[in-house]
């Protein structure tokens, strides 16, 4: 699964896209854990990578909630209203 694993790439995504990625990664994590429990897992490093990707996405979401980083959707809305007023 090719995911945006760089925090700067994730900051450019919408909240819906981030939530979708988290859902997909959690499904993959479940599958990987199941494979590990049954002895079918070949790449144990993928477990750690998926967990880190999920944490990275949650960090970006929390940054937006706290106002540390602006939400790209809100930026687009403010730019649209600014051009309408001009």
From TrEMBL:
GO terms for molecular function: structural constituent of ribosome. Pfam families: Ribosomal_L29. Belongs to the universal ribosomal protein uL29 family. The gene is rpmC. GO terms for biological process: translation. Gene3D superfamilies: 1.10.287.310. It comes from Auraticoccus monumenti. This is Large ribosomal subunit protein uL29. Keywords: Ribonucleoprotein, Ribosomal protein. The keyword Ribosomal protein applies. The keyword Chloroplast does not apply. One of its GO terms (cellular component) is cytosolic large ribosomal subunit. The lineage of its organism: Bacteria, Bacillati, Actinomycetota, Actinomycetes, Propionibacteriales.
């Amino acid at each position: 699964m090719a995911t945006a694993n760089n925090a700067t790439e994730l900051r450019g995504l919408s909240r819906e896209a981030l939530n979708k990625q988290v859902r997909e990664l959690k499904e993959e994590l479940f599958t990987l854990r199941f494979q590990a429990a049954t002895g079918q897992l070949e790449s144990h490093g993928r477990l750690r990578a998926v967990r880190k990707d999920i944490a990275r996405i949650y960090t970006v979401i929390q940054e937006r909630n706290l106002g540390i980083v602006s939400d790209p959707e809100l930026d687009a809305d403010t730019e649209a209203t600014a051009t309408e007023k001009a």
